[in-house]
Amino acid sequence: MRNAGERHVTEQTGWGSCRRLVGKVAVVAGASTGIGRATALRLASEGAQVIAGSPAGEKAQIDSLIGEIIAQGGTAQGASFDATDDASLAALVDLAVGTYGGIDVFHANFADLRVIFEDSDAATVTDDVLDRTLEVNLKGMVRATRHAIPKLLERGGGAMIYTSSSASIVGEPVRPCYAIAKAGVNALVRHVASRWGREGVRANAVMPGLVVTPEKRETMPSDLQQQVLASGRSTRLGEVEDIAAMVAMLASRDGEWINGQSIAVDGGSTVS
Predict the structure, then answer these.
(1) Signal peptide: which range, if any (predicted)?
(2) Is the pLDDT of residue 8 over 60?
(3) How many domains does the chain have?
């Protein structure tokens, strides 16, 4: 029996009924779990050849993902990378070019979500937490951009898609470093769109709200889920497939006239 996430992808895309990305090459940097995994599945289901990147310690999850894509008739290869290492991100891009001939889509979906638990407030947070958060969550995005843009230009343009967060636009009493990094990603999006938009590159960020991943659904108390739902503007909680669907649209011709935007996909929770 398929799990809920697999069922959602099959029903929405039919592994062939929506084929907007046939002939395209997509890199998903941060694909082992959650949003990245769902996005890699979605892009492959729409016909893209996928390079699925993850930290070295998550090889088992990537191998499982690649196996699932191939079993469904898709094309994908796994790779490891380190967002803090410029050469590592260059190698990830080079792998896509060497394996499939180029890049049309780069989804930068990585972040250090462990250090977030030490991200207290601006008066008490340590330099170590600040430095680590910016090193991965913001500087890593710049590194990815540095290596992906030239390859997108070689193909006549393409899509840079970043995972930001609703934390970048709402004020919170905690997690200042995370919010600063994600706000920086939104600024990076505007820069890339302004600098290379007329050369065919479109850059956008997706800002998820609270997304209940399959893992989180098992551990998040049901009363907390109901509390979040009751305080929102949607009939359900967010799922990883909601974000994957937006990424797929932005990657396709349907998103060709969307550039420089940070788009909230959050069930309306950031409506002002």
Answers:
(1) none
(2) no
(3) 1
Residue ranges making up the domain that contains 108: 20-212+239-264
Distance CA 241, CA 76 (A): 19
pTM score, two decimals? 0.92
| Average pLDDT, integer, range 18-32 | 97
pLDDT digits (tens, 9 = 90+) for 56-114: 899 999 999 999 999 999 999 999 999 999 999 999 999 999 999 999 999 999 999 99
Q: Which of 195-198's residues contact partners 24+ apart within 8 Å by CB, and which partners?
A: 196/149, 196/152, 196/153, 196/157, 197/259, 197/260
Tell whether 269 is covered by a domain: no
Q: Can 162 be counted among the known catalytic residues?
A: no
The C-alpha angle 27, 32, 35, rounded to 5 degrees, equals: 80
Q: How many CA atoms lie within 13 A of 104 on its CB side?
A: 20
The active-site residue, picked from 107, 178, 239, 266, is 178
